[in-house]
């Protein structure tokens, strides 16, 4: 059974599709094209045939089909496909998500463990970030199901605190009881080093798209979740105790 037939069977009787498929973790532009873009094209064709009533698309802040960054460009193209599909949609653009088994806070911590006694700060760690706890994100996503006003809308979701990368790393080290010497890394070295050390890896621990966060910061209004959904997102420091569990050093080499 090919992919189209499989999708056709799985979409029978489905009213709402939450489109989570993506190849960001693999760090390959070719896979972004095959999985994200071509996969979305196939999904919308089969969803339209099956009479699906709505597609909810998680996306990224700064998604733009004309971006110079491959991941953001791909996300923008996927958004464009969904908007033009003829199927009612809701696009949820988010800042960086964090939570247990994520590819953000756990990767930062794992890298700090392996780089003892140092921790590297791209651009001196001055890049501002606005991380959103994944459980708050899931709560918002579920709430959109009951809000007709979100149909055919693009919503922005973000945490309610703006944290420089340096402070974010400091918070992770404090919560986990680790000490490291923070060393600035010039931004000019970030992408070349990512290509050298990660380009050969079949399933890299750190996607090279991770570096894009330092060139296109995730920032928006601090109260977007409060205004739209009526609650305050959890703060970063209050929710990262999951980093204290055992096995975090091995996390860097786990799929």
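Sequence proposed for the structure above (255 residues):
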């Amino acid at each position: 059974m090919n992919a189209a037939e499989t999708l056709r069977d799985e979409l029978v009787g489905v009213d709402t599709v939450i489109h989570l498929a993506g190849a960001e973790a693999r760090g390959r532009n070719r896979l972004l094209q095959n999985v994200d873009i071509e996969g979305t094209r196939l999904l919308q064709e089969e969803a339209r045939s099956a009479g699906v009533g709505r597609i909810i698309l998680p996306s990224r802040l700064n998604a733009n089909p004309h971006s110079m960054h491959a991941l953001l460009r791909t996300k923008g193209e996927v958004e464009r496909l969904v908007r033009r599909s003829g199927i009612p949609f809701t696009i949820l653009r988010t800042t960086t998500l964090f939570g247990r088994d994520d590819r953000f806070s756990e990767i930062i911590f794992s890298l700090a463990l392996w780089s003892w006694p140092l921790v590297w700060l791209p651009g001196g760690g001055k890049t501002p970030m606005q991380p959103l706890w994944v459980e708050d994100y899931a709560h918002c996503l579920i709430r959109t199901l009951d809000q007709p006003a979100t149909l055919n809308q693009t919503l922005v979701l973000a945490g309610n605190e703006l944290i420089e990368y340096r402070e974010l790393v400091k918070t992770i080290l404090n919560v986990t009881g680790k000490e490291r010497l923070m060393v600035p890394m010039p931004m000019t070295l970030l992408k070349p080093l990512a290509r050298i050390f990660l380009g050969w890896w079949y399933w890299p621990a750190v996607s090279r798209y991770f570096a894009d966060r330092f060139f296109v910061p995730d920032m928006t209004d601090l109260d977007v979740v409060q205004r739209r959904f009526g609650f305050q997102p959890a703060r970063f420091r209050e929710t990262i105790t999951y980093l204290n569990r055992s096995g975090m050093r091995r996390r860097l080499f786990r799929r």
